[in-house]
Automatic annotation (TrEMBL):
GO terms for molecular function: ATP binding; ATP hydrolysis activity. It comes from Microbacterium immunditiarum. CDD domains: ABC_NikE_OppD_transporters. PANTHER family: D,D-DIPEPTIDE TRANSPORT ATP-BINDING PROTEIN DDPF-RELATED (PTHR43776:SF7), TRANSPORT ATP-BINDING PROTEIN (PTHR43776). Residues 2-250 form the ABC transporter domain. Belongs to the ABC transporter superfamily. Signal peptide: none annotated. InterPro entries: AAA+_ATPase, ABC_transp_ATP-bind, ABC_transporter-like_ATP-bd, ABC_transporter-like_CS, Oligopep_ABC_C, P-loop_NTPase. This is ABC-type glutathione transport system ATPase component.
Length: 257
């Protein structure tokens, strides 16, 4: 289980301005096989919390643990294992993929770095399997393509394949489908749901898209100004939101939820 316990993050202000508290006392939990969503407006602290969960930035207070082990106290070997266990899928696939590397190179280098497979044929087989898992069939059609030769949805599937090739237990997806067209978004979400069922992957899904949350999430946290103001099973929160901010978000949704 990946947990934060009263995590806070403070950023220094510019000269002459006070510090900015981007996250305040946030406690969340994610586990394999469970789709957890964090929702809120832009600037609510969602992405900062995601970066803390991924150990990309340190928390200013509180703790982040994986199966009870504190990230702040991990040595190099434990951190490598953590990075295999918790992977990221971000909003901008074009910016997350090296434009000079073909699909097989982009995924294969992750396999080699983490020692998932050794030898050219074993690495190739791992890449092919990962692409197949995300619905890029036949995989051989995509292996030699560069990112600019793929559609936005295909690039996002490559990012998911690059994450899933390590067999993570949890994927932190920060606005992973927000830039996609509705039909493409639906396809990527089906891939994520399928991986949850087939591989028992858990998700921390960061988004402002409430209709998507209602369709895919098991549990939802609502963030406002860096704080978790409401949480609960998705159906319960959508049916009877207790916080005024949650009611405002639901009322402002662009389509019925």
């Amino acid at each position: 289980m990946l947990k934060t316990d009263r995590v806070s993050k403070e950023f220094r202000g510019r000269r002459g301005t006070p510090p900015v508290l981007a996250v305040r006392d946030a406690s969340i939990a994610a586990e394999p096989g469970r789709f957890v969503a964090i929702v809120g407006e832009s600037g609510s602290g969602k992405s900062t919390l995601a970066r803390i969960l991924l150990d990309l930035i340190p928390a200013s207070g509180g703790s982040v643990t994986i199966d009870g082990q504190d990230l702040a106290r991990m040595g190099r070997g434990d951190r490598m294992r953590f990075r295999r266990t918790v992977q990221a899928v971000l909003q901008d696939p074009a910016g997350s993929l090296n434009p000079r590397k073909r699909v097989e190179q982009a995924i294969g280098e992750v396999v080699r770095l983490h020692g998932i497979a050794k030898g050219r044929s074993a690495v190739h087989a791992a890449v092919v399997e990962a692409l197949s898992l995300v619905g890029m069939d036949p995989p051989e059609r995509y292996l030699d393509r560069f990112p600019h030769e793929l559609s936005g949805g295909q690039r996002q599937r490559v990012l998911i394949a690059r994450a899933i090739v390590l067999r993570p237990r949890i994927i932190v997806a920060d606005e992973a489908v927000s830039a996609l067209d509705a039909s493409v978004k639906a396809g990527v979400l089906r891939v994520m749901a399928d991986l949850k069922e087939r591989l028992d992957v858990g998700y921390v899904f960061i988004t402002h898209d409430l209709p998507v949350v209602r369709k895919v999430a098991d549990y939802v946290y609502v963030m406002k100004s860096g704080e978790i103001v409401e949480e609960g099973e998705t159906d319960e929160v959508f049916a009877a939101p207790s916080h005024p901010y949650t009611r405002t978000l639901l009322a402002a949704a662009l389509e019925p939820v």
